[in-house]
Amino acid sequence: MKSKYIKLTIVCAFSGLFTACTLNYDPVSAPTELTQGKQTDTTTAVLKDSAAASSQRTVLYQSLKDGQEYGYEDLLLLADAHSDNAYGGTTGAEVVPFETNSIDASSSVLSRDWDSYMTNISQANVLINGIDPLLTEGKITQADHDQWKAEGKIYRAMMMFEMARIWGSFPIITTIAKTITSGNIKQVYPTYYPPKSTAKECYTQIISDLTDALNYAPNFSQTNKTLLSKTVAEALLAKVYAEKPIQDYSKVIQYADMVRATPGLQLDSNYSDLFGYNAATKDCQARNTPESILEYQYTSGNGNWVTWMFGRQLDNYDYYFTWAKWVTPSRDLINAFDQEGDTVRKNQSLVYYSCSWSNYYPANHYPFMYKIRSSVNSIIKLRLADILLLEAEAYTSQGNLSGALALVNQIRERAKVVDLASSDVSTKSSMLNAVLNERRLELCFEGQRWFDLCRNGLVESAMNSVYGKDSGRLSQINKFNSNSYLMPIPQTALDENSNLTQNPGY
Amino acid sequence: MKNKRNSKLWVFLNPLFLLLLMSIMSTTSVFAQTKTVSGEVFDSSNQPVIGASVFEKGTTNGTVTDMDGKFSIKVKQNSSLQISFVGFQTKVVTVNSDYLKITLKDNSELLNEVLVIGYGSVKRKDVTTAVSSVSTKDLEERPIVTAMQGVEGKAAGVSVMQANGQPGSTPTVRVRGTTSLNGSNDPLYVVDGVPMTDISYLSADDIENMQILKDASSAAIYGSRAANGVIMITTKQGQKGVSKISFNAHYSFNKVKDNIKPLNTAQYEALQKEIGLVNLPDTLKDETNWRDQTFRTGYEQNYQVAVTNGNDHLKYYLSGGYTGENGVVKTSSYQRYNFKLSVDNQIRSWLDINANVAYSDYTNKGNIISGQGANRGGLILAVVNTPTYAPVWDPKNPGQYNTNFYGVNITSPAENIARTKDNKTSNNRLLATGKAIITFFPGLKFSSSLTLDRTYSNTFNFEDPLLTEDGRNNKGTGYDSRSIGSVLIFDNVLNYTKSLGKNNIDAMAGSSWTNSKWSQSYINASDYANGDFQTLNAANKISWTGTGTTASNWAINSYFARVAYNYDNKYMLTGNIRADGSSKLAPGHRWGYFPSFSGAWRISSENFMKSFNWIDDLKLRGGWGQTGNQSGLGDYGYLAQYNINRIQWFGTGSDANAVPTFSQSTLSNPDLTWETTSQTDLGLDLTVLKNRLTFYMDYYYKKTTNMLMTVTLPAGSAPANSLVYNGGDMVNKGWEFSVNSKNLTGIFNWNTDFNISFNRNKLMKLYLTQVYYDAMTTDDVHDYVVRNAPGHPLGAFYGYISDGVDPETGNLKYRDVNKDGIISASDRTYIGNPNPKFTYGMTNSFSYKGLNLSILLQGSYGNDIYNVSRMETEGMYDGKNQSTRVLNRWEIPGQITNVPKANFNIKNSTYFLENGSYLRVKDISLSYNVSNQTLNKWGISRLQPYMSCSNLFTITKYKGMDPEVNQYGDSGSVQGIDYGTYPLCKSLVFGLNIEF
Q: Which positions in chain A touch B724 (Cβ < 8 Å)?
């Protein structure tokens, strides 16, 4: 009896010892390479079908809307608070160094910007590289392929252009690095740790992407200005050719003219359409205005968050209005408006509220930047006025002062400001000053001013004097010099990638 | 065999029945020449031992001692008596008089202590590896909520740190240093043979003993999961012949340290004038003591009941209890109900069936916001940062907390408490194990066990739509997350022991498989009409991006074997091998093989040592082994993973038929495999002076290779820049010493246990990206203070060197490290190390006639703390109120002071770096065993009132609230940061133990 049990248990025992369960568990609630396709040594990028390409295209468009921090807020910090348009607005190392000119490689703002732009470039690379195999495999229509790839290239050029303006140069990456394995690590390693290219190479890459895209990008649509259209590419080309490393004003004029020729694109007669909020409908005053070339649009239920960084959010009036706001309009800018008697644009650019803090102004009459004022207002990334004034700048440098004046006055008329008389702008330098001042008033808090100064080599002359004449400005820590034109490469990026080198002066 | 069982049965029958049997037996043995012997049995402190078994040796003739420890028995002439009782060494006395006075010795000689090692046990004297045993005797007398709190300061090489004082928070446990940068550094817990990572469910009262397997050769039997050490916990089980009901209750009062005082209104106004950012009206006066609004006298209560009984065949232990703590911060609390049953039945002579069921329900409420400034809800900092002129409530808006601080971006402690007061996390945990042990023949045993470890967790957060500003901005928010996890563990182990003369062999082989299924649902909601109903049906908006369900699974298969050989108790050798396969690793790299070897030489058993009779035991140990780690990095780390992003389908311009996008979030690693730690250990055990003094010493060298980490690649090259990778090497090496001494024995008993551990940690190599920054400090500075890079200890602090206050400008002088003439980011350097040079603990216990006193001292030396809290309370950069330390600030040129001016050039620097060394009286426990006749008559065998005091005082130079602080408790890469962290408190405990 007993031995029978023993035998039975011995059998059980040994079967128990060697039981095993499977080790293969595929993810149940997240896509992985098992469902999306594996990156192998021969694939250029992973897109398994047309739907995946469409998804990747949406990822790019979505990132434009979502990138409010690096793509909007930080640009305002750099272009407006680091220039004479604004003060930092609050305390702390994120904003104060921009106002006092003490930005160094430890800036967390520049660090997140660098990473964001580089990440976006890689996302564009997935679409641009991954879509070609789909075409050869017959998984996508020619039309979709061409258009989506063109949009990817415009997107990539936009990101690279911002980097080129901020840091001068960066590592140009247009392909997807291979998966690291123990077998290929030596060959693959350098592709993950690339060195910087030259500024010229960077701009050449940007121009090549944009000109490629001109052929297949979607046509300009008057009803959907969120698209990376042909006109967007043309506008960007105009802006790119104005930059120092490849400056070519005839190209600026050429592309600006193409932009101006876009059917349906014209200055909005009502400046407030661009930034207005309609309290009755609780919505922004207008989307897809005739003037805008590229907009990031937000609606109720999926609004922008960035508004509360700058002032009141008109669709939620008290929303976090206890925090001192960023990018406070400077006395110097307010004076500039007042000198021109420019009330239309002043009232759309800044607003006075009473608030509970008094960092820069008395609490009962405190100005705030007003060009984004509710969570359902759009961010206007590109608009015609910018291109017109850029063309005026190009005419000026070519000596075509009357051409420049006509454009400037076209802008002034819309803003209900008196025309400039040709006698006041009879020299190249006075015309340039007039154009830049017009750009300042027209485009303040749109992330332009610092780059206007850089492009024209005016940083030292314009900025070193501001601290003296603007009584509200924190004291200057470092003098602006020829190294100030480029921002420091973030220390985090330098430490991550020892093949990068710091810009001079930092 | 049957006889033997019967003979044992004797002991456990109740005294009446026993007397009856005895009388029968006395008649049957009437022909032999007998005599009656009586006597008394005492313990070493001269207290009577009640219920001890007294047997005529070699017979079934026996009795038990009565309430006074007395006995009387009829025995044959020239026989001897065998006296035994649980917890005492069995004693045999020759009957040489009619009245015997017998003193039983405590069974506490360390050499005979049985240590539970993986899938088996061994006597301390036969151990070949580094195993620490932790006394759990006084755990029930201390205000301990989680069992590991009781290990602090008790074991060499085991660092237990109460990283914060949040009720119910689990301490950070590190065995011989930190081995992994991003992977888990928590040890593996094995409770009654069941491996797990979380023991919050367990009441300290239910723990019988605890052992810590520190070196690779002991831990390797748990192979893949043992790189961070293994903590073996045995819970209380029924015992043969022990029939009792025990009840333990205690109540403790907790108070927080009060050493940081805020400026009063006048001082605050003076400071703000100097900073110049805030304009205040002239009418302000002191109004609120924010400390009183935040802190209270907390209390903890603990009630545990246990019933146990057992005979030869059947033993059980049943316990239940309640632990509740109301934290020193108002609204923070913790509650736990625990229940446990173990049954053991020798159902056949060859079959033993055993079941363990534990269920626990525990809830944390009102966890505070920490690691954030007062501007982001940080509570502890808000206590100092909120100006004292402000009222608690908004005078204009009844029912709302005051938010008018004249533009200063803070929220008051009252509001910060209100933000999280309704947040709670409840956990239910069920652990059920069934086990069968089959004895084929003496020496060969097979055991098979199946365990279900089921966890259910529910986090519910609610923020009132009116009370706080954050709540108003979001119109009230609700969050409900529920998860269920089921882990199944099936273990089969074969054990064989054989002695042939002086050769002893102990062999073991087994398999184990573990399978886990986990799923979660979560809902975010907002826009409540009011705060009357918190459930999410009362919210108008359910978040379309923050709502969903997720799930994941994993499994581990293991095979293991051990052979231990012992020759004449002199030479001992042990070899282990374990093979582990994990589903979390890349196919083709899933199996890891972890061998270990250890040996010991008991020198004291050699003939040449015979003359050294003061040496009881001298043993040299040595071992080498490998262990693995694969935890802490997600269940599918080897795969390129994608995020699912929902796309807006509503509103102008949106596509009504939108589907989510998938965007790649991590890179593929087809080679992902085990992190391996190779460890060499050399040890010496010495027991001298008749077991009065025991000494253990260990040296270890622990090298982790293929360290699992989340590599951040430079962005741009691939669709994602995060990669789970075997990407680095780390070394921990150190010494451990521990001494146990019985200074005085007899009526007055004094024991001292001392341990000290020296660990050195260094990150040796990173295979890909070389530098990792971590721990961003205040919003104002917005810079990282931790930089991990090869050649430095883990978590090293990085920043500027401050050379004091410049008497001319009042700014801090920072050192121009790279001598380029300007102070900029490139002047930052390594400024501190959060790892202590050594940690130590000393327990002194005294007993005199039932009076027991135990004092635990514990401390740490040579570690730095980066005090971010001080940046917020002494930074003087905006309108936040500051601590009174800033009254010494620089105010006029030429002034010599060590506190810089208002609005000085603040940076992460040595100015905020502090020496974190401390020595503290961690615990003093005093108890008294009441014994008198009346109690005995009522059947009360033990009545022990006690009181204890925790964290009574601390000697430290640290300026913060408590040097035992770590805002990022669980992190391997960041340690020693104080950032408005919930402070530890002093506790005073009163309690009572009763046994029937």
A: none
Q: Helix axis angle, A249-260 relative to A230-241, nearest 10°?
A: 160
Higher pLDDT, B784 or B36: B784
Tokens of B599: 């040996």
Tell whether B560 is within 8 A of chain A (Cβ). Answer: no
The answer to whether residues B812 and B806 touch, using CB atoms and an 8 Å cutoff, is: yes
Asked if B679 is an interface residue toward chain A (Cβ–Cβ < 8 A), one would say no
Q: What does pTM read for this prediction? A: 0.87
Tokens 């079959």 appear where? B351
Q: Which residues pair with B617 in a beta bridge?
A: B687
- Whole-number Å distance between alpha carbons of B485 and B516: 7
Q: How many CB atoms lie within 10 A of CB A190?
A: 12
How far is the C-alpha of A104 from the C-alpha of B240, rounded, in Å?
Answer: 73
Residues written for chain B = 996
- Whether the pLDDT of residue A310 is over 90: the answer is yes
Percentage helix, strand, coil, to 5, in chain A?
A: 50, 5, 40
Residue B697 token pair = 């010493």
Contacts of A62 (CB under 8 A, 6+ apart): B645, B647, B661
First-to-last C-alpha distance (Å) of chain B: 33
Which of A18, A25, A167 should be substituted to probe chain B, the one whose Cβ sees the most B Cβ atoms within 10 Å?
A25
Inspect the interface and report whether the beta carbons of B473 and A301 lie closer than 8 Å: no
Q: Count of CB atoms within 10 A of residue A363's CB?
A: 16
By C-alpha distance, which of A260, A215, A209 is closest to A235?
A260
What is the radius of gyration, based on Cα positions, of chain A? 27
Q: What is the pLDDT of residues A239-273, one digit of tens each?
A: 999 999 999 999 999 999 999 999 999 999 999 99
Whether the CB-CB separation of B677 and B698 falls below 8 Å is answered with: no
Residues 6+ apart with CB under 8 A from B702: B176, B177, B179, B216, B677, B678, B679, B680, B731, B732, B733
Question: What's B889's DSSP letter?
Answer: B
**Could you read off the pLDDT of B943-995 as tens digits, one per residue?**
889 988 888 889 999 998 888 888 887 788 899 999 988 888 888 989 998 98
CA separation for the pair B624, B610 (Å, rounded): 31
Amino acid at B237: Q
Question: Are A444 and A349 a contacting pair, CB within 8 Å?
Answer: yes
Q: Does B557 touch chain A (CB under 8 A)?
A: yes
- Cβ within 8 Å, pair A122-B716: yes
Q: Which is it for strands B503-528 and B661-664: parallel, antiparallel or unpaired?
A: unpaired
Where do the H-state alpha helices sit in A279-400?
331-340, 343-349, 384-398
pLDDT at A19: 61
Architecture category of domain B2-103 in CATH: Sandwich (2.60)
Domain range annotation of chain B: 2-103
Question: What is the rounded (10 degree) CA torsion for B9, B14, B16, B20?
Answer: -10
- Answer for the pair B846, B765: CB distance below 8 angstroms, yes or no: no
- Rounded to whole angstroms, how far apart are CA atoms B777 and B870? 11
Cβ–Cβ gap B407/A324 under 8 Å:
yes
Say whether residue B783 is in contact with chain A using an 8 A CB cutoff: yes
d(CA B461, CA B456): 17
d(CA B630, CA A440) in angstroms, rounded, equals 57
Query: Which residues, at least 6 apart from B127, have a Cβ–Cβ distance to it below 8 Å?
Result: B115, B117, B600, B621, B685
Which of A39, A324, A506 shows the shortest C-beta gap to B640? A39
Q: What are phi and psi of A414, to 5 degrees?
A: -60, -35
pLDDT digits (tens, 9 = 90+) for B102-121: 888 766 556 666 777 777 77
- Residue B293's CB is within 10 A of a number of other CB atoms, namely 18
Residues 6 or more apart from A20 whose CB is under 8 A from it? B511, B513, B557
Helix (H) or strand (E) holding B572: strand B571-582
